[in-house]
Write a structure and sequence with these properties.
alpha/beta, 14 helices, elongated
Length: 420
């Protein structure tokens, strides 16, 4: 039976046209983040299974590609639990690996530490538009900075990068987990039910206020609490400044510094931004990861229904590894979705080097071939891209293919004579 030519479901081959755009975008990301002081790091694609299943990753922990033990450690026949046969997993995001990396190397790192990490992650998810089982993430994180300077820098670096890639008119939606909890407390929900409430709230954009109300009631919450909770959101729609409204309404359950800090982030970013976007306070923003402790944010791009990136503050996660909490905040660009949108909009990589093709007739060799290759080497010195290839029988089709790849000039070399 013939081997399968197709990649595994949810994964894809990347053709040269897309790869060229991906390489360009990676270059823009690294250059821009570098100017903001972020340093590139790399972590393994595989992590200890206990690190990946520590109840910090939300629903992503259900999507882990788990790895069996190897060699003599693997005894499937006698195993009665998964723990006996599994000891590792492919990372589902870059935050857990980063925190482990920081916990292991903190003594050798500056404080605060500004990290840039790009790499593939894996989730056993249902593939759909803009969603794969293997995909690249691009994260920047600041560890060791307790103030909202971290959020301001992360948002400015990310939005500057998006602006350089040609994105305009997008939104950065922002909220704070402490505001979410204060709204739930004000409404009378039991503290141990907050996560359940937030899971339903997170569906607001799909099912609306009425759908959220019906689901909360179905979960058994009191009608009084549900009505009080949703009245906050109805009133928010009429407010010019939602943060100020909640700061006043939630007095006694929300620390004033939380609203003040959030407003300062919104005002500071809006006053110093270099790209065309808007900061929007969104009290329905939840973010799925359980490790977020404070500010949370997402990118909303025109023409795309879902999030194209997001992040937030996770001050308690380092303590899971070291026993001592370290303030931390991060922002992740939805790299694959950005690439998809660029390609759908016909994006072309700017300022490409001149591309020339040297086509050599079959049979040309020896000293003459060396001379052609030497000429190509010399031409490459000024930044020109030179392809050296044997001439096909169907030369016209070959040239058409190369022209589609951006080759502007052709030189043809024959056994008997040299001609353009």
């Amino acid at each position: 039976m013939a081997l399968s030519k197709k990649p595994v479901t949810g994964m894809k081959d990347i053709l040269p046209e897309e790869m060229q755009i991906r390489d360009y975008v990676i270059g823009v990301i690294k250059e821009t983040y570098g100017k903001f002081g972020f340093t590139s790091i790399e972590t393994p694609c595989m992590e200890n299974i206990a690190n990946l299943t520590n109840k910090q990753g939300g629903d992503n922990e259900k999507l882990i590609f788990k790895i069996l033990k190897r060699g003599e450690k693997l005894n499937v026949a006698e195993a009665t639990t998964e723990e006996e046969v599994v000891d590792g997993g492919l990372r589902y995001d870059l935050t857990v690996p980063l925190v482990r990396y920081y916990s292991n190397n903190a003594a050798q790192l500056p404080s605060p530490f500004k990290a840039l990490q790009m790499g593939n992650v894996w989730r056993a998810d249902r593939p759909q538009r803009g969603r794969f089982r293997q995909f690249m993430q691009c994260d920047i994180d600041i560890l060791g900075e307790p103030s909202n300077l971290a959020e301001i820098e992360l948002i400015l670096a990310t939005t500057t990068t998006l602006g350089k890639l040609g994105f305009k008119g997008f939104e950065i939606r922002i909220n704070d987990r402490q505001i979410l909890k204060a709204m739930a407390a004000y409404s009378g929900f039991p503290e141990d039910s907050y996560d359940s409430v937030f899971i339903t709230l997170d569906k607001m954009d799909k099912i609306g206020l009425e759908g959220v109300e019906a689901e909360l009631l179905e979960k058994g919450f009191s009608k009084e609490s549900v009505e009080k909770y949703l009245s906050l959101y109805r009133n928010l729609a009429e407010q010019e400044n939602g943060v100020a409204y909640l700061a006043e309404t939630l007095q006694g359950v929300l620390e004033p510094s939380v609203a003040e800090g959030l407003q300062e982030i919104i005002d500071s970013v809006s006053a110093t931004k270099s790209s065309d976007f808007k900061m929007v306070f969104d009290a329905t923003l939840v973010r799925g990861m359980s490790y977020y402790t404070g500010t949370i944010f997402e990118i909303a791009l025109p023409g795309f229904g879902g999030s194209c990136g997001g992040g937030g503050r996770y001050d308690k996660m380092v303590g899971k590894f070291t026993g001592q909490d370290v303030p931390a905040c991060g922002f992740s660009i939805g790299f694959e979705r950005i690439i998809m949108l660029l390609m759908e909009n016909g994006f072309k990589v700017p300022e490409q080097p001149k591309k020339i093709a040297y086509l050599i007739e079959k049979g040309v060799g020896g000293e003459k071939l060396c001379g052609i290759i030497a000429k190509a080497q010399n031409t490459r010195q000024d930044g020109t891209q030179v392809l050296v290839a044997r001439m096909n029988k169907n030369k016209k089709f070959q040239k058409d293919q190369l022209t589609a790849e951006g080759y502007e000039e052709f030189e043809e070399f024959y056994k008997e004579e040299l001609k353009r």
